Amino acid sequence: MSGEKLRNTLKVHRAMRDWTQAQLAEHAGVTRKSINAIERGHFVPSTVLALKLAALFEVSVETLFQLPE
Amino acid sequence: MVATDIEERRDRLQITMFAGITAGSGGLALQELCKMIGLEGAPVVVLALLSLIGWLVFAIATIRMTRIAKAGGTGIVLEDERRDQLRAESLKFGFVGVMAVQCLALMGDQVLDGLTALPLTVSFVATLSIAVGVIAGLGRFVYLNR
After folding, report:
1. Which residues does chain A have within 8 Å of residue B86's beta carbon, measured at their own beta carbons?
2. CA torsion A9→A29→A48→B94, rounded to 10°?
3. pLDDT grade, residue A65 (50/70/90)?
4. Closest-CA residue to A27 (of B86, B146, B75, B79)
5. What integer best gives the mean pLDDT of chain B?
6. Mean pLDDT (whole number) for A7-15
7. Which residues of B touch A45 (CB under 8 A)?
8. How many CA atoms lie within 13 A of A51 on its CB side?
9. Contact B80 A46 (CB under 8 A)
10. Which of A3, A53, B39, B144 is least surrounded by CB atoms within 10 angstroms?
11. CA A37 – CA B146 distance, rounded (Å)
């Protein structure tokens, strides 16, 4: 996998909606492990998936994902 | 059955498949090694049995995995971009493994031939390449998907 890292607030937004990883995965159309890997910063999602997740939480992609400083 | 259960079941089956193929193809390669060095009898029989059991475990796990994959029809997501990426990474790893065995076999043939007058047989190198390829590839996938 690529060495690129991306900070994200996925866990915070998920908690705000009181969703489990499995529930978010179902909404986003991915596996629960992928959500877990994204939250831990082990997997950088594609633009499409990032946009999908942002749309689910009704926030901008930049709010959800940030480049590390 | 919920998506998480299916995912976990599939992950366990992947580990079983890995164990099966390791025993199956590894046993086969070791059998070829025995043939090459002229070893016969009990060790070869044990390895043949181990290999057979390994392939059987692999086949059963693959059938069960196919049944799980059909759960996709119920709307449960089992494949996504992360798994595609892991698969590509694992294939690359397996390919590098095969290439490494081939290179080592080429060099080893020269050294072994000179030292022991025991040339590497084509069937041994072929089965070893296959074993290393599948074990490295599937093993890498199981490791990355943990």
Report:
1. 1
2. 100
3. very high
4. B75
5. 86
6. 92
7. 81
8. 3
9. no
10. A3
11. 10
Question: At which residue do the structure tokens 């994902």 appear?
Answer: A65
Tokens representing A45 are 């999602």
pLDDT reported for residue A2? 54
Q: Of A32, A45, A46, which has the smallest distance from its Cβ to B4's Cβ?
A: A32
Residue B105 confidence (pLDDT): 87
Nearest CA in chain A to B89: A1
Which DSSP helix (H) or strand (E) runs through A14? helix A10-17
B86 interface with A at CB cutoff 8 Å: yes
pLDDT-based confidence at B3, cuts 50/70/90? low
Which tokens go with B95?
């390919």
Judge whether A6 is closer than 8 Å to chain B, CB to CB: no
Distances (CA, A) of B99 to B12, B29, B136: 29, 16, 12
List pLDDT tens digits, range B42-79.
888 999 999 999 999 999 999 998 888 776 555 566 77
